[in-house]
Amino acid sequence: MEDPNNNPMNPAEALRIVSDKIKAEAILIDLLRKEVGKVIVGQSYMIDRLLIALLADGHVLLEGVPGLAKTLAIKTLADAINVEFSRIQFTPDLLPADVTGTLIYNQKSESFTVKKGPIFSNFVLADEINRAPAKVQSALLEAMQERQVTIGDTTYPLPKPFLVLATQNPIEQEGTYPLPEAQVDRFMLKVFLDYPSKLEEQMIIRSNVREGGLAEIQQVISPDDIDRCRKLVKQVYLDEKIEQYIVDLVFATREPATFGLGFLEPMISVGCSPRASINLALAAKAYAFLQGRGFVIPDDVRAIAPDVMRHRLGLTYEAEAENMTPSDIISKIVNKVEVP
Fold first, then answer.
1. pLDDT tens for residues 90-137?
2. Which residues are CB-neighbours of 291 under 8 A, at least 6 positions away?
3. CA-to-CA distance for 31 and 26, rounded, in angstroms?
4. pLDDT per residue over 51-71, tens digit each?
5. Listed residue (276, 62, 328, 319) closest to 179, CA to CA
6. For position 302, what pLDDT does the model report?
7. What CATH number corresponds to the domain at position 287?
8. Which residue spans within the chain are E strands per DSSP?
9. Residues 64, 202: one domain?
10. Count of domains observed in the chain
């Protein structure tokens, strides 16, 4: 980093300047979190993961039973930032054009016009994504990875910020299509949602049955603010030792014996891809930003590792027979791999 006079700045001074900027911008994120909290009771874990994905320019796959405010959370977040929101209900008869859009022939002008689909929004909720066939799911791939959609011969950029939140129902598997590994890998985070506590559920009842209904959400932050925060997240300092720690965690899923985890080898069929390393670094930076810090510590990596890695890990039949989940294996890896 250089100062305004183009003189090289020492690392400690550069880190202090970035930290001061982050502390100032973190106030906006706290405002956003409080505004969303007017409607979403509890579920702080889900909200934080949504914010991490938003700040790190990633996407989220949410898994939880119906009624846990998945749709309401992203709609509320969109209202608080004042960006466009669209919801796509995935069904077996959905077509790719229903997601991306299509060309429509205009008889008067004797030409084709483009009708853009619901993917052209800032926040897109892909509800029950595993209910649509692979052809429709793959229509999301280009949008999620390249931030663009091709209709006919023309490629259209998607708006910024762009966030896909896909949901899956873990209990109802009839008539569903498992997501292809290539698509699952495009999600930065996979988040499991649990039921609220008794007190939280009581507060949920109170907020939903009171006169006037749910609180009205005001815009507290702009898309430009999000863009500025994203640039700051990229400046969060990631030490070389932390980079090595991230690589070790990912390599422990591919070569468990190297890290003293040989008993996991029969459990893992496919280790995490390089995208896991990239996303773990980005998500750790965003996590540090949310804590108001200008540098990543090992605890940031440990906190976010399960959400980044669990959907990139392939399990064998032996693991399933022993009721081992990806989260169980990642927990053992995180506890074993040496922390810098």
1. 888 888 888 888 888 777 777 888 888 899 999 999 888 888 877 887
2. 300
3. 9
4. 999 999 999 998 877 777 788
5. 62
6. 94
7. 1.10.8.80
8. 60-63, 85-89, 101-106, 111-116, 123-127, 148-151, 154-157, 163-168, 189-192, 268-270, 314-315
9. yes
10. 2
